[in-house]
Structure formats: structure tokens, C-alpha cells
């Protein structure tokens, strides 16, 4: 199990605290210091069952600067969105937990973290 976090994020800290409380075996990836590649993002999106625009933090200054609200949200634009997330990792919604069963979740709630814990191998 791996969790992508920004240590400054309260939701990330809460998720890590819950993982610790449950004795989970996991690794932490500070994704702003170690940004995921476009390929890693594709893999995580497949595991999430989501599209890149579904995990974008649209209120971030980078999103506004890039004009993401105006970008098409269709299969033809998917690569452009993924490249933007790879180039601007601050845009990625957090925390993201990749579970041992091959799935992943955007773990912004305690229930989502518990769901990921339930999918441990």
C-alpha cells in the first residue's frame, strides 16, 4: 500500500494517522517532492477508475493559470490533462492510496481510508 501525500494537507495527515492507528503496512510518497510521471498517473487513474480531470484541484492557482476549466473533458484530451498533472503535481487531488489489491482511492474521508484498508492483501 502506498499513500501520496502533501504533509501540509490536513486530510493527508488524517489519513496517515488512521493508517498508523490501524497498524497498516504502507509507504509514503510526498508527491510534490517526488512527482509521478505521466505513465504512473495513467496507471493510478486506471486503478482509480477515473479520468484525469476527476482528480484535479481546480482551485489551485496553476489550474487557473492553465485555464483548465476551459479544457475539453473527453478521450482526445486525456493525454493533455495527464501531462498537465505530471508537470504541475500540486494539481493532483490528495491523498491517493494505492491498495494491495490493485485498486486505488482518493482518500479524503475516513471511510475512503477504511475502504482502502479493507482491501489489504
Explain briefly what this protein structure is.
The chain has about 120 residues and is of the alpha+beta class.
Helix content: 25-40%
CATH first level: which class?
Alpha Beta
CA radius of gyration: 14 Å
The domain count comes to 1
What CATH architecture label applies? 3-Layer(aba) Sandwich
Specify the number of helices: 5
Account of the protein in words:
- By secondary structure, the chain is α+β, with helices and mostly antiparallel strands.
- The chain has one domain (2-118): 3-Layer(aba) Sandwich (Glutaredoxin).
- It is built from 5 helices and 4 strands; from the N terminus they run βαβαααββα.
- It has a 4-stranded mixed sheet with strand order 2-1-3-4, with helices on both faces.
- Helix 1 crosses helix 5.
- The longest helix is centred in the N-terminal third of the chain and has 12 residues, at 10-21.
- The mean pLDDT is 95.
How is the topology of this model organized?
Blueprint: E1 2-5, H1 10-21, E2 27-30, H2 38-48, H3 61-66, H4 78-87, E3 96-98, E4 104-106, H5 110-118
Parallel strand pairs: 1-2
Antiparallel strand pairs: 1-3, 3-4
Helix pairs in contact: 1-5
Amino acid at each position: 500500500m502506498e499513500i501520496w501525500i502533501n504533509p501540509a494537507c490536513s486530510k493527508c495527515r488524517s489519513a496517515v494517522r488512521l493508517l498508523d492507528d490501524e497498524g497498516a503496512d504502507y509507504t509514503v510518497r510526498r508527491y510534490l517532492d517526488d512527482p509521478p510521471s505521466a505513465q504512473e498517473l495513467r496507471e493510478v487513474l486506471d486503478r482509480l477508475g477515473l479520468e484525469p480531470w476527476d482528480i484535479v484541484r481546480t482551485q489551485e492557482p496553476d489550474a487557473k493559470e492553465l485555464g483548465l476549466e476551459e479544457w475539453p473533458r473527453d478521450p482526445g484530451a486525456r493525454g493533455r490533462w495527464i501531462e498537465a498533472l505530471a508537470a504541475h503535481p500540486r494539481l493532483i487531488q490528495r491523498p491517493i492510496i494505492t491498495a494491495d489489491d490493485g485498486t486505488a482511492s482518493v482518500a479524503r474521508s475516513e471511510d475512503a481510508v477504511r475502504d482502502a484498508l479493507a482491501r489489504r492483501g
